Amino acid sequence: MVSRKQIHQKNANKTYLNTVTAYLKLAVLGFLVIIVFLVIPIKYSQAHFEAQEAVGQVYQSQEWDYLKSQTEEADIEAAQQRVDQIFSFYPSVKKVTYNRVLEQAHQKLVLEDQLNSLFVKTENNQDQNSHLILKEDLSQEELSIIKNGVEDLPHDSMRLEAERVLVEVENLLTRIERTQAGIEKLPAEIQVVEEINALSQQVVKFEEELSNLDNQAQIESLSRQLLEKTTLLSQELQEIVTEETAAAVDTELVFQSYLFSEQLDGTVADTRKLFSLTFDDGPNLEYTPEVLDILDKYQIKATFFLLGQQVENYPELAQEIVARGHLIGNHSYDHPDYETLTDEEILEDFTKTQDIIEEVTQIRPVIYRTPYGGGGGRVVRLLEGATSVIWNVDSEDWLSRNSQTIYEKVMDELQPKTLLLMHDSHEAVVPALEILIPVLKEEGYVFVDPLEIGYDFLFFE
Ligand code: NI
Prior knowledge:
By secondary structure, the protein is an alpha/beta fold. The protein contains 17 helices and 8 strands. Helix 1 (4-56) runs antiparallel to helix 2.
């Protein structure tokens, strides 16, 4: 028989054992909880932090789109090795993500090299997008290989930018190729005078496109080809054109092309009546602004031969002349007679005036007119860097100082190609222009600058 006391003792032992076991279980559980919920997560987040840091050695930002500018293949390899190493201790499904962005880094590096290879390296094309200068032998095939490579990249900002650049490059290349093909297709000969009209329309388009594609490497050879073609065509035209057939040349059309214009100015094919308005001795406060307003009113461009001293006195007016689209030339510093000056004195006076005009207007004149048209061939030889411009009709505005007299003198001496001397320093010039310009327009005169007039006397004998 088991006594009550014994039963009691046995129960007490059992309770004690149960309690100890329970505590032990609790401790083990607690330990596991700490491992599972604290230690492992800390270790893993540390691993991910390190992996991100490794990837960050290659990419610019957390977005993982743009590579750092100095990233090389070796950096990507190093990052990959680091990631492999980290996850050999802490296996994780997320490792795939790091592998993928590092694999993409390889592709991006290749793409960056390919994109760079599309452009000509210049000293200052840091900002390539505003100055896309294509390499000269770039082909559409080369471009489509790169475009295919982009297809494998993720849709991030880097890819978007690459696609944008590629579209721009493709457009440019297409325009260049189209222009090239067009110029090649231009004929080298003409049978009938009228043919020049349609051809000049095409040439004007090419000229415009070439000036738009200005900074491209191919432009030099394209311009040369176009010059060769237009030179041939101009020669052909001059061979077949006569006084009688010259009227068939649509001068308004043909002389829109600067290449044809350069080669046909003043030839028998040029039936235009040309007029070049030139004003000496300015700028001055009294009449220059009025003269500028009249020219604007009739939408005419003129030429102003400026005195250095006047430019110093009225810099804003000199700038205004340029701003309104007129041509400026050098007319000496303070109007000395070059006839009486030594070579050294002439050079000094001329250069001083060039410097003043350039400083004020940012333009260094390429044409000049000596005071009184004096100095002859000696000055022309001395100042060979610029072109001398004289005149074939003198308004004698300084003599008559009367608008009606000025008008009559000009109309009396009018020539098919008139280069008129006036002065914006006389009051009578303003009303004289008001009478003269509408009559000249009515007579079909085209207003051009002095160098376009095909009048090549450089000095008075
Ligand atoms: Ni003068």
